[in-house]
Amino acid sequence: MSSPPTAHSLAPVLHSEWLKIRTLRSLLGTLLALFAATTAFSALAGVSETSDPEFDPLFMALSGVAPGQIAAISFGAMAVSSEFHGGGLRLTLAAVPGRGRWFAAKLLAIALPTLAVGLVTAFAALVVARAGLGAAANGLSTAEQARGVVGCAIYLTLMALFAAGIAALLRSGVGALSLIIPFVLIVSFVIGDAAGGGIADLLPDRAGQTVLYEHPDRTLGPWAGLGVTALWTAAAVAAGAWRVRRRDA
């Protein structure tokens, strides 16, 4: 039975995986798209009508995460699926015999840049949206805004890892994207509207986005919602790790 990867054994593999991501322009492009889409849509939301009695200034300022998360999901799925083309995984495992160590390094190479870009993106989105909202956002406290920015970055990271786990399970980035993107864009909203909360609030995207609200009107609180998304992500990653260990490269 193989021992779990240590920080010492993981460092060179993590460096190798990060080099792979840096050299693939399509992957770096998804991180740029994450920043651009989120900040652009948040800026548009900031200058929209705010007379709705249920208006939530924090969610309005960070609402660009809805389209932006597609880029995070694409980043996670593509980073993993790139290994399944042209025998790439076979070459990788020849250099890193431990499949668990490789997959852990791959997940870290996905999580760390997503979290970093997510923090910068969420802060920029909040700044540009607040400029448009003006006095409508004056009631937001520093703690609420910090929670929104940090929570947004964590949510984007979890969704990227969720996609990575599904891509590893299906051994296909296209398959993962074809499953996840329609779900978060269409199915989740349909279920949410039909169910009116309750079980719908436990879906991975709806649960995690609770942290983006100043006053969440949902079953879960902000951090509990992220916890539910983390459980979905852990399940997807575990399933992906099982597939990586069981199937030939």
Strand content of the residues, in percent? under 5%
In terms of structural class, how would the helical and strand content be classed? Answer: mainly alpha
* Average pLDDT number: 87
Main beta sheet = none
Shape label:
globular
Tell me the total number of β-strands: 0
pLDDT < 50 stretches: none
Radius of gyration, rounded?
A: 19 Å
State the share of residues found in helices, binned by percent. Answer: over 70%
Helix tally equals 10
H/E series, N to C? HHHHHHHHHH
How far apart, in Å, are the first and last alpha carbons? 20 Å
Please provide a written account of the structure.
The structure is a single chain. By secondary structure, the protein is an all-alpha fold. Helix content is 75%, strand content 0%. It contains ten helices and no strands. The longest helix is centred in the middle third of the chain and has 35 residues, at 99-133. The protein is globular. 45% of the residues are buried. The model has no long low-confidence stretch (mean pLDDT 87).
